[in-house]
Amino acid sequence: MGVMTRPITIFISSAGATNAVNVIDALRKTDIPFRLIGGDTDPLAAGLFMVERGYVLPRAADPQFIPKVLDICSQESVDVILPIYSAELPIFASRKHEIEARGLRICVPEEPVLKMCDDKLSVIGFFERLGIACPKTWSSEEAANERLTYPLFLKHRQGSGSKGALRVESQEDLHYHLTPDYVVQEYLDGDEYTVDIVSDLEGRMIAASPRVRNRIYGGLSTRGTTVYDEEIIQTSKRIVEALPLPGPSNLQCKRTKTGALKFFEVNPRFAAGGLPLAVAAGLNIPEILVRLLMGWELPEVQIRRGVVMNRYWSSQFLFQPEPGGRHEILD
Asked: Could you count the other beta carbons within 10 Å of the beta carbon of residue 178?
């Protein structure tokens, strides 16, 4: 591993996303000499006003998304790109070789891995093949034609987070809510955990910090507590290294009231809700990722257990000095 020899420039995509703001805050807590450049589709995205320079981007699906990002990186002499939003990851992955050919450093899983992680039914199939305990899961078509035991849990088959997820108590409830874009899972009682993970650029796990999701709002953890659970950590290692998942990722699981541990979700990105808790507990995932990409020495990781996070709303105030002009932070 090398040592830091100069300030670097880091580009953060989707700068208005919760994940991005958390990453910016985490990087500000390090001794890495850097300047931050941000991009977002929203000209008033909060993260654009937390970086040295912000740019408005087309949407990730727009053919001009990657060319615009590359133009910005060239103009700002960017060293490292940190993709943030789930929908952007496959776009960056599909152009990774082109990006790296420009001298830029980026960490993103392979496209087939991203596709599988975005499909909850495929994730369950992967767990089963790996011998990882997981909830019984049915496609919407299977669930509509089987006799099932209630309660059950409905989730959107694709996408991250738990928005739109709901518990159903009867066959009538199931048929009322069930649409082709849902999967149906057995309902798991007990404590729910998210495991914040960072792996090296080949997908070998460096460290993992499990946390109990004490309170959830809108699919995000608003209160959590770090814990030490060797079974969760070792099972997480098996999962991320089997895929593999380089860089940041997070897994979700439940330990039922009978003590059974069951995994049910894989997110190949920075956690949206709990990253600040991992950082506060001693696992600064954005710092480790930047150091990996730059080939720098990694910090010693010592994760504290029993650290509690309470999340709350905060506000940012902007001012437009001239009509039609650029907004600025209101002092």
From this structure: 18
Contacts of 12 (CB under 8 A, 6+ apart): 20, 23, 24, 36, 37, 38, 39, 47, 51, 82, 84
Q: Which residue has the higher pLDDT, 18 or 220?
A: 18
Whether this prediction's pTM lies above 0.70 is answered by yes
CATH for 136-186, options being 3.30.1490, 2.30.29, 1.20.120, 3.40.50:
3.30.1490
Residue carrying structure tokens 């905060």: 314
Q: 3-class DSSP state for residue 292?
A: helix
pLDDT of the residue at 311: 86
Q: What are phi and psi of 308, to 5 degrees?
A: -105, 135
What is the widest separation between alpha-carbon atoms in the chain? 64
| pLDDT tens string 257-278 | 999 999 999 999 999 889 999 9
Contact 12, 21 (CB under 8 A): no
- For domain 8-109, give its CATH number from 3.40.50.720, 3.40.50.970, 3.40.50.20, 3.30.930.10: 3.40.50.20
Rounded distance between C-alpha atoms, residue 74 and residue 314, angstroms: 34
DSSP string, 189-233: -SEEEEEEEEE-TTS-EEEEEEEEEEEEETTEEEEEEE---HHHH
Asked if residue 43 has a cis previous peptide bond (ω within 30° of 0), the answer is: no
Instruction: Give the start-to-end residue ranges of the domains of the chain.
Output: 8-109, 136-186
Residue count (the chain): 331
Helical packing angle, 230-242 and 120-130, nearest 10°? 110
pLDDT digits (tens, 9 = 90+) for 59-84: 999 999 999 999 999 999 999 999 99
